[in-house]
Amino acid sequence: MGKLRDSVDARALRFAVGFPLMLAAAFVVCAFLVRPDLPEPLAVRWAGGTAVDFAPFGAVVGAGAAMIVLIGWAVLVQAVPLSRPAIMRRIMMGTGLFVSLFIVTVLAAVLVGQLGLEEADQAQVDVAVLAMGSGAAVGLGFVMGFVFKADERWSTDDDRAMEAALARELDPDLARDYVSLWVHARSSVFVMLGIATVLPAALLTIAVPWLAALLVALALLAAACLFARIRVDRSGLRVFAAGFVRVMDVPAAAIEAATPKEVKAADYGGWGYRSRGTATALLVSSGPAVVVDRSDGRTLTVSGGSATTADNVAQVLSRVAARARRTGGSADM
Fold first, then answer.
1. 3-state class of 227 per DSSP?
2. What 3-state DSSP class applies to 152?
3. How far apart, in Å, do the first and last CA atoms of the chain sit?
């Protein structure tokens, strides 16, 4: 129970549960107040300006109240979890208020349009009520979205941020031993890739749609392979193809040396991830790269972006490797 209270905004939950219930109760009370002036049964659907479907008063009021409560709950509850971003919670709170009020507006327009009629055959939805109620619902929804204050609480993310801040305070050199960068092929390569695949796919869309979709998928896959994310810290080197697929993970203690070098992708088998014998490479283009010699005799080569960033990555790798060897291989974070 304690975990549940820590994961939800209690005030927002009370509003999300209580507001639709109060709104539905108010609708039921008002419906019974005008019950003597309404026909039986009531019109509930129109086609071509004429009522075509009818339902008893009790069914209309009961179904309407249930819609107000259930739909209101479904939307407003989205603003309750504290794990969601504050802006999303504000949007969902405003949207929930608008949806609840709009449903009441539609139901009220249906009832008001039938006041004073003996039979519901000639009933019409009251446009004035619908227009004014809808405008009020939109306006109040916007106001709620702006005035709702998302309850901010200490979370596990804050714990991690606090630990990182304390580590930086106790060890000022920690920030120097961290590098994270993206590397990618030249823009002209992506342009050529688009011309070679996307344009033919557009021509094939009419004749063979599945082949066009396949070409686009292959183009996206090829473009993703020309991106890589490099992360270096005191635990070692990690390289992610396409930004999220880990293809290299070298502990700092296993690094013998790191050297910036100008390379040609053709010498390593081309762009992308390559592994041959004791040599592994992830190159997105020819040019500056970092060559890492492991203590087990293997060699890793990864694109370094520019000459400056490649030299910086090599320096940080050399520094964290020397530190790991001094501390016996532990990742001192």
1. strand
2. coil
3. 35
> How far apart (Å, rounded) are the C-alpha atoms in residues 236 and 324?
9
Q: What is the largest CA-CA distance in the chain?
A: 95
pLDDT tier for residue 154 given thresholds of 50, 70 and 90: low
Q: List strand residue ranges (DSSP E) for the chain, in order.
A: 42-47, 50-55, 179-184, 227-233, 236-241, 245-251, 255-263, 272-276, 279-283, 287-294, 299-303
Tokens of 180: 């994270």
CA distance 145 to 93: 6
Residue that the structure tokens 């020309």 belong to: 226
- The token duo for 177 is 């031993």
Spatial separation of the C-alpha atoms in residues 101 and 23, rounded to whole Å: 8
What does the alpha-carbon distance between residue 308 and residue 289 come to, in Å, rounded to a whole number? 10
Q: Which of 118-132, 139-153, 209-223, 299-313 is modeled with the greatest confidence? A: 299-313
pLDDT value for 152: 60
- Report the C-alpha gap between 326 and 71 in whole angstroms: 63
The helix-helix angle for 86-112 and 10-33 (nearest 10°) equals 0
Q: Is the peptide bond before 41 cis (omega within 30 degrees of 0)?
A: yes
